[in-house]
Write a structure and sequence with these properties.
401 residues; alpha/beta; TIM Barrel; nine-stranded mixed sheet; globular; binds iron/sulfur cluster
Amino acid sequence: MRPPCAFGLPGVLNSKHPMSVGVYIQVPFCQTKCTYCNFHTGVVSRDRYEPYAEAVCREIIESTESAAPAVDTVYVGGGTPSLLDPAALARILDTLRRTYPGEPSEITLEADPETITPQKAAAWYSFGFDRISLGAQSFEDRELRAAGRMHRREDICRAVDLLRAAGFRNISMDLIAGLPHQTRESWEASVSQLLRVFPEHVSIYMLEIDEGSRLGRELLEGGTRYSAEAIPSDDAMAEFYESACARLAAAGYEHYEISNWGLPGRASRHNLKYWRREPYFGFGAGAHSFDGVTRWANVHDQARYVALIERGTSVREQMETIQPLQAFHEEFFLGLRQLEGIDFEQIARDYQPHLGNLILTVRDRIDNLRSCGFIQLEGERLRIAPDHITVSNEVLVQLLG
Ligand code: SF4
C-alpha cells in the first residue's frame, strides 16, 4: 500500500500521518574480505564486537525524541551479523522492542553458512528472528574459493538443515551470476542445487565490477589476481540471469523485483520498503535512513562510530532533504525495479503541484516507449516490459531524460 501523502510528497513521516517504519541494523564485521566485496565492512578483532553492539543499542535508545513510529520489519545485515554472539543480537532486538512500539511482522538476520551452529540457530529463533538470509553465492567450491568465501557447498546444505531443525520456515538464499570460473554448466548446477534446497526466497545478483573491490580493480587494470581473467563475459552473465528467471518461474517462484524471487507470500517485506520509498531507520556504522523527506547516513568507520556514540555525539552525516524533482525520479528508479510496477496516476497526482510540466513530458515519453514495447501501462500501473527488465536503466534514462 502506498504511504499517506503529506506536503504533496508521499511517504512522509510526521505526527499527522503516523505510519510504521522498517529498521535496518548494520553489523560491519566479516571473517575475511571476499574478493568482489565493495561494502564498508572489515575484518577486526572479536573484541570489537561487544562495544559495537552496545553502541548500536545506545543509538537506538537515543534515536527517539517523542512519539516513535511503530516498527513493522527489522533487517539485521552486514557484513556478517551471524558472527556476533547471539546474546548481543538478543540485546539489540530487546532494545528495539523497548524503544519502538509495534511487533514486527518480519525479522531477518543475514548469516553466512559456515557461521551457523545448532545453538546459534535455536537462539536466533527464540529471540524472534523468523527469516534468515543465507549468503550462499554459489554451490561450486571452485567459485567459492576463488571469491574468497569461507564456506563450501556442503556448508550451505548443512546450514539449511540446521535452520530448518531450529524452526525457520522462511529462508532466503543469494546467488551471484558472474563469479570467476563460472560457466554455463556450473551456473546451471548451482541453480539446480538451489532448487533442490528450495528456499522460500531467492536473490540473484550480477557481479559488480568497479574499483570498490579487489577483484574489480584487478580486472580494470587487466591483471589476473583473484582469477580476474576467469570472469564470464557480460553476455554470459545475462544468459545466466535469463536462464535462472525461467527455471525459478517454472519452480513456482514469483519474480517481484529485478533481483528477487519469492514463493507466494514470501516477498521480503522489509526490502519492499526501499523500492516503495517507505520510511526506514538504519542503526550502526554506515547505515542509511529515510523518513520520507530526508535521507541520511551514519559515519562509515565502525571505530569512529563507537567513539562518537560513547561521547554522546551524533553519528549522522550526509543529511539530504529530498526535493520534489529528486523524489519524482526515485519513484521511477526505485519503483520500476518491481515487476508489478508503479501507480503512475497516483504519482502524477502527488507531484502535479510541483512538476506539472515534467509530468506532461513524461506522459509523452511513456507513449513512445510503450509503442516500442519497452514499457507497459495497464490501467494505472506502469511497469517495465518483463523482457526488458535487464535493461531497465536504459529505459529509465529515456523516460526521465
Ligand atoms: S561476507 Fe559480504 S560483506 Fe563480508 S566481505 Fe564478503 S561480500 Fe563483503
